[in-house]
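Notebook entry, structure prediction.
Reason for the run: the old model in the group folder had no record of what sequence produced it. Starting over properly, with the input documented here first.
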Amino acid sequence: MILVFDVGNTNIVLGVYDGSKLIKDWRISTDKNKTSDEYGVLINELFKYNNLDLKSMEAVIISSVVPTLMYSLEAMSIKYCDKKPIIVGPGIKTGMNIKYDNPKEVGADRIVNAVSAYEKYGGPLIVVDFGTATTFCAISKEGEYLGGAITPGIRISSEALFSRAAKLPKVELSKPNSVICKNTKSSMQAGIVYGYAGLVDAIVGKMKKELKGEVKTVVATGGLSKLIASESETINNIDKYLTLEGLRIIYERNK
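New structure, fully documented this time:
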């Protein structure tokens, strides 16, 4: 069995694979102040609750967009799993040619998503990841990472609205029944959800044109993917475990 970590700015998603089967996954808050022992104790308790043993992990692989957490997670892996983790980054075999001005600038999560999506769906395709930032990634028919776009995430955008407009309350991120709403709360929800769906469709539409209209698959992943994909006209696949699956694939290519 292997332990995979997808470390984002808001959440850490971790999972345990037995061969190609995901047998358990969890989502915990990203806390840059936590020590290796604090993470070790927390993850060990999650394992114990599910009758799993950290020491039985054959390997640990980590994808992270939070550099300041890497020391704690590496130390945790060594101390609690007796394994030096594989870190997704320069020098790791991904099987994907990165067509970026500086390949080192591409977030590890974007590469992991691209590897997973191409392996599962083929290309050309577009991956939309709804995280702290929303990222759009294009992959060619030959499996090349072509680049993409980055926008503020849904939560960042909505929190900016709450904090900057004195009379607007903080609202739950959920879809109202209509766009023409008769109260402030629903009006804000409509603007956030339907407006963001429009943003997604506009960017995906332009990316499709640049890819000569050959794209048939647009995959969404991330915590709020289901909410926005339900109103998007361009997203045709939701893959909750895309990143974790990509980590497993990259591990297989490097073990």
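Summary: The chain has two domains: 2-87, 123-241.
The old model has been moved to the deprecated folder.
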